[in-house]
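User: Can you predict the 3D structure of GNAT family N-acetyltransferase? Sequence below.
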Amino acid sequence: MNDLLTGRLIIRPLTAADAETIVADDAGSHPDWAPDYPAPGERIGARMFLKACAAIGDPQPFGNYEIRLREHGTAIGGIGFHGGPDENGAVEVGYGLAESARGQGYAREALAAVVELARTHGAAAVLADTTHDNVPSQRVLLAAGLELVRQDDELQYYRLAL
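Assistant: Sure. Here are the predicted structure tokens for GNAT family N-acetyltransferase:
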């Protein structure tokens, strides 16, 4: 799987070796990582990716990706799928950015790229969720074309038909 390129980002497919490094190393311990990368969410995603690799092999294109700045290659976050398409052809996405990279439109740009990737690989819909108090994430999802379809006591659920 090749890198996805956007105007400002490189969306790089995660490898098992990358995931192991993310799980094991301290934030900012690599010269090509933002000082506050990886955040706890990236570590969770890397662990999920390693479990998927152990169970089914490399899950690409419906795996995990590292978000890097094109300008100098610095890793600032992660984005990925929670598995391949379900019985209805829907894929679920999750993403996170280092705090230092938030508020600059990077999450919206990365999400648009993986939505297009899902479309290209035959997914029928993209799903995502976020907490009620995560207004920035809600804005990212809406900007990417997802619509709020339901909510419960903990989460808001979004969907985009492809």
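The helical segments are 16-24, 40-56, 106-120, 135-143. Strands lie at 4-5, 9-13, 64-69, 75-81, 90-97, 125-131, 147-151, 155-161.
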